[in-house]
Amino acid sequence: MKLVPSSSAEDIVAHLQTLRNEANIAGMGRFGIDTATALGITTPQMKTIVRQVGKDHARALRLWNTGLRDARMAAILTADAKTLTKTEARRWAGDFNSWEIVDTAADLFTQTPFWKELIAEFAEEEREFMRRTAFAMIAGAVVHNKQEPDATFISYLPLIERHAEDSRNFVRKAVNWALRNIGKRSRTCHAPALALAEKLAASTDKTARWIGKDAVKELTSDNVLRRLKE
Question: How many CB atoms lie within 10 A of CB 127?
């Protein structure tokens, strides 16, 4: 089946099902991806599908509602950040059950006009993947929202510190990711991020200490320091 911009959500799901790959599903499971509804679609295959069907926000919402992992990935990649509402973003985030869905959606969410509100809200959520979303959004916005002033990202350092003791795997890794990305953004961001990393590295809390030490290692590396001097 060749997909086209007019393809329906049902057409896309039917096509995805023809690509089901058991070996890929097993491989995804080894990387900590929830495979309960996965079809094992590869990244190149998904990119081809997205290119063929293009953006369609209403269709993306229908794809999300199927509950299928790969249809949801297609939904994120074909949704329109300018059309996405806060209610829709919150509903999707409430369904998150796997880190790769979170990280893909985080890039979409950071392109909305209300991305800062979502970060503040999701960071206070107790659910693991919703909290991860907040820090994945910070990490992504540091890279993609180039017009955003450094001060915005420096202002997230207290939030990072507040949640640095969350020992859940997918949260602590995202908190660490956000801290490292802030520190690498610019010379202005580097000093306060490194200061926090060093403070966390000296913490009595095991999780905060790991986050801090790992961030210090990268933020003091020759590659990072050289790039910031350029």
Answer: 15
User: How far is it, in rounded angstroms, from Cα 91 to Cα 98?
Assistant: 15
pLDDT mean across residues, the chain: 97
Q: Which of 213, 214, 208, 121 is nearest to 167 (CA)?
A: 208
Q: What is the pLDDT of residues 136-184, one digit of tens each?
A: 999 999 999 999 999 999 999 999 999 999 999 999 999 999 999 999 9
Measured torsion, CA atoms of residues 180, 182, 185, 188, in degrees rounded to the nearest 10: -120
Distance (Å, rounded) from C-alpha 57 to C-alpha 54? Answer: 10
Under a CB-based contact definition with an 8 Å cutoff, are residues 213 and 201 in contact? yes
Overall size of the chain counted in residues:
230
CB atoms inside a 10 Å sphere around CB 108: 22
Please tell me the pTM assigned to this model: 0.95
What is the band of 1 on the pLDDT scale with cuts at 50, 70, 90? low
Of the candidates 71, 134, 140, the residue with the CA atom closest to the CA atom of residue 111: 140
Sign, Cα dihedral of 151, 152, 155, 161: negative
How far is 204 from 125, CA to CA, in rounded Å? 25
Task: Kindly tell me the burial class for residue 153, based on how many C-beta atoms sit within 10 Å of its own C-beta (0-12, 13-18, 19 or more).
Answer: buried
Contact by Cβ (8 Å): 14, 20: no
**Residue 225 carries which DSSP code?**
H
Contact 64, 71 (CB under 8 A): yes
End-to-end CA distance of the chain, in Å?
A: 50
pLDDT beyond 90 at 74:
yes
